[in-house]
Amino acid sequence: MKKKKVNLRDLKPNSEEQHSHDDGHDHGDGSAFKTYIPAIISFVMLMVGIAVDYFDAIPQFEGLIRVVWYTLAYIPVGFPVIKEGWKSLIKGDVFTEFFLMSIATIGAFIIGEYPEGVAVMLFYAVGELFQNAAVNRAKGNIKALLDVRPKEANVFRDGDYVSVSPEAVNIGEKIQIRVGEKIPLDGILLSEKASLNTAALTGESKPDSIQKEAKVYAGSINLESVIEVEVTNKFEDSSIARILDLVQNATARKSKTELFIRQFARIYTPIVVFLAIGVTFIPYFFVDDYVFRDWLYRALIFLVISCPCALVISIPLGYFGGLGAASKNGILFKGASFLDAMTKINTLVMDKTGTVTKGVFKIKEVKAIGWNETEFMQYLMALEEQSTHPIAKAILEYKAEGEDFEAQDVSEIAGKGLKGVVNGKTVLVGNKALMTANNINVPSETESIVESIVLVAIDNQFAGYVVIADELKEDAKETITDLHKVGIKNIMMLSGDKDSITQQVAKKLNIENATGGLLPEDKLNEVESLKKNPENKVAFIGDGINDAPVLALSNVGIAMGGLGSDVAIETADVIIQTDQPSKVVRAIKISRSTRKVVWQNIILAFGVKVIVLILGAGGLATMWEAVFADVGVALLAILNAVRLQKMKWD
């Protein structure tokens, strides 16, 4: 069966914040201001109309002229809503907020309350603008999805290397990869050796040093000299294509949720519409002096009162406040629905490298045997200066006092290390295999060290070792403690790094459940297994390409945005811009505060609505009272939502 070729253009952004009416509001940054122009025009015309009405400044402003003026003020904000309502009507979705907004505001025009009709629709439009501004702000700060596939492959044809698309390279052809380039296809190494960064594929923190005829994988980055590779798989069968395919399938399996406002409108709108119809016609059977025009007037007032202005503003504004507060704290939510989803999380799964560790090498321990530490490091650094390996770079960060030593006759022993002469002494730097080959005894204590270790011998005597490790982020331990405090008890660590290193890091962080040596498929299976229990609401934190499938599958995918891969960032629902894991705790707190404010607004708006609706149906509420109740509640809801911008979540 032929595999489907993966194209990142087919991958859909994983934001559940897309309304069915996004087409009318989705604008790029270049045209952001244009989205506000209709509301500005309507606002200015409404204010002018109200001023002329109130001060009676223009005697001619009455009759048809007044109707036309307010109609023109209504069109910029009203037409898009009516258009969306009509589209929904054609699709069979009758009772939407667009439909209710349309009949309520048009009803206000029918009974002669033109300013109210414009004002109500304007409020709704402003609420929508606030909501979309929050989402677009998040999108603008999130890195655009980049095609992680190498754009080209240098393939050897007709006696020379030519640049072609990776898809055009055949199995058995030879390709060349320069320093810093990504390997475009899976293959076998033809060069004598290579140092590859495979973190994007495996999560392994240590660069992979391989020898001739070893397998190499698409997506790995060549760190040192120019290398040549014989292609063994076509692009659609490569490791990176497989990972992208996992992303695509995981995204397809991820359930789509709708915003509460649309769910509520499906119940609220038909009830209000049928009640308004009832207010118009039912009295005919019970009232002796029934006058259709009078009861129609009451029904239209009822519709204006029932206009969900405060509701449709308070909900998105509450989320907008949460999104804005999160953004100020270096946290980007891709949509309001993820604020909701974050409040339900009870299981947190995290990657290791780049998530709780910095993803860079640091000297953890220097052990000199029979030598002064500074002098020992000077001998070691003299040789490492001749290497471009990331471990060498970490060693060279050591600050040694005194003059630098110089190395001579430096040679590299493939797969073992370096040999050279420093101050007339023969120095060996490398792994245990190098020591064994030169009959140098290595202390047994080195066997229990799980991190990367550099062994040193001077004049055929073991002189000591340096332990190199990926460093924990400063707030990693605090994060786990705080997660427990906010009620997240089930915390797991899944890593592509060695299991021994993973277990060591987990122990330091007080994480009981940890597994290392996992492939992307293994991580995906682990999270799928967790999600089989409907009570588990799973969040996953990661940063590499290999994490993207799990980010897409989890209930909430959280990506470390500062150093994370573009695919992980695009696939995730929440982006931690500062790469601080402690911000995950803050994201949970902000989400809970936001949901609390939103529910306060809902209860306030709905409670007042019910009271005034009853008064309106009984003819006890006038249009002005309805306007005051509606606008007043909306303003209270706005003020309540603004509180989120001032809150602290330390």
Catalogue the unreliable spans.
Answer: 1-30, 138-148, 250-258
Strand order of the largest sheet: 10-22-21-20-11-18-19
Shape: elongated
Q: What is the percent of helical residues?
A: 40-55%
Q: Work out the radius of gyration.
A: 33 Å
Report the β-strand fraction as a percent range. Answer: 15-25%
Q: What structural class is derived from the secondary structure elements?
A: alpha+beta
- The overall pLDDT average reads 79
> How many strands?
22
| Count of alpha/pi helices | 20
Biggest beta sheet attributes: 7 strands, mixed
For the terminal residues, how far apart are their CA atoms? 55 Å
Domain P-type ATPase A: 149-248
Enzyme class: translocase
Biased composition (Basic and acidic residues): 7-27
Region (Disordered): 1-27
Q: Your description of this structure?
A:
Residues 7-27 have a biased composition (Basic and acidic residues). Belongs to the cation transport ATPase (P-type) (TC 3.A.3) family. Type IB subfamily. It is found in: Cell membrane; Membrane. With 650 residues, the chain is an alpha+beta fold. The protein is 46% helix and 17% strand. It contains 20 helices and 22 strands. Helix 1 runs antiparallel to helix 2 (64-90). The longest helix is centred in the last third of the chain and has 36 residues, at 582-617. Residues 1-30, 138-148 and 250-258 have low confidence and may be disordered.
Give a short overview.
The protein is α+β, with helices and mostly antiparallel strands. The protein has a seven-stranded mixed sheet, with helices on both faces. Strands 2-1-3-9-4-7 form a six-stranded antiparallel sheet, with no helix packed on it.
